[in-house]
Design goal:
The protein is mainly α and 78 residues long. The protein contains 4 helices and no strands. The chain has helices at 2-15, 35-53, 57-66, 71-74. The chain is flat and about 40 Å long. The mean pLDDT is 85.
């Protein structure tokens, strides 16, 4: 049961990425994207590039989706 609780907590924490603003907002006043927006866009770019280069799309997608997880706790430092 403890494992299930940890999994649920992790999923909840990942969901908070949509509330974390990207640091470039201080330079680009009209930017309104979040860490979640950035992660989604990164995953799409990674998928497209992996297809073009013949790379393992699953591996690239996992790397793209996970690369910003620390920013959920630390914010998006410049």
């Amino acid at each position: 049961m403890e494992d299930l609780e940890r999994i649920v907590n992790f999923i909840f924490e990942v969901g908070t990425a949509r509330r974390i603003p990207r640091s470039h907002r201080q330079f680009l006043r009209n930017a309104e994207d979040s860490v979640a927006d950035h992660s989604f866009r990164t995953a799409i770019i990674g998928m497209v590039l992996a297809g073009l280069e013949g790379a393992d799309k699953n591996k690239v997608l996992l790397m793209c989706l996970l690369h910003d997880l620390p920013e959920i706790r630390t914010g998006d430092p410049n």
